[in-house]
Amino acid sequence: MRVAALISGGVDSAVAVHKLVEQGHDVHLFYIRIGRDDGTNDCSADEDIEMCSLIAARYGLPLDIVPLHDEYWEHVMSYALETVRKGLTPNPDMMCNLVIKFGYFEKLHGHEFDKTASGHYASTETDADGRVWLTTAVDAVKDQTDFLARITYGQLQHIIFPIGTMPKAEVREIARQTGMPNAFRKDSQGICFLGKINYNDFIRRHLGEMPGPIVELETGRILGQHRGFWFHTIGQRKGLGLSGGPWYVVKKDIDNNTIYVSGGYGTERQYGHILNLEETRFITLDPWKDTQCENVSIRFKNRHMPEFLEGRLTRLDGSGRFRIESDRAVQGIAPGQFAVIYDSEARRCLGSGVISTSGINN
Q1: Domain co-membership, 287 together with 253
Q2: pTM of the model
Q3: 293 classed as catalytic
Q4: Domain that holds residue 254
């Protein structure tokens, strides 16, 4: 099988390449370069490419560099900045997978191959009717299906995940045993487009500052000043610069540029049970298309984390609006973020919806 393998310079994609070669596939390596040369971000592209070149040479495989920085800026970074400007919380990694890795890349190169391979911790399965489903990885801590929950069915059909059935420890061990140059390289952290740049510095560069009050929600007391509501997200604890905490961001008044906080580790204001979703999309199909879909048992995530929360899903209308009622209180329900929907066994990742501002703190 001819496989286009996306390689990042990290250990996960390198071991994915190792597995593909071991299985006898005809592999062509591709590195997607998204960093710009104008100081907008500081991705470690040169170091990554050097590592990719070493992997390519080790296995005698061709390596192409695919520049998609303009497309990335237009569709991912602009989405992130506009979402933040509205006082919402974006998820650029999800959009990168949808638009860049399995969007533009597929149109340019991936479609020429039988499959596109990725080093994501995820899997797929095919049901009795021949439909392909995105399924969770063996390693629950490293599972990345939540980052893939916005891709289309056509994209999913063309992807394979060579390390999805392996725990991270095994991936590291293979890299060590085979003497890979990146065997002990640290995993990348943070938002995909920032590289080494601080998140607040990035936001400040593009949106500037707009000082406003930080107010205790219960009393109306002004506790301090923020430099712009776009630097803060619901559920945030660190970086507020307040004494006598802990303090959590529980509400943002965009019109009046005010951040509301509530104090104490156990404050109920940072929790909620209801997540109302907009723009809900299912990857393979809507499992409840022909049913009422009321109080259906599901698992879900409202952020990248190992745990799957239990709840009940209800369709609100036919335009992609759903409601998740969680069985237990959920911390930091942030509008703009994606809620990722799984089946009741947390096996299949079914799709995702954007968390709306309605229903917060219910």
Answers
A1: no
A2: 0.91
A3: no
A4: 209-266
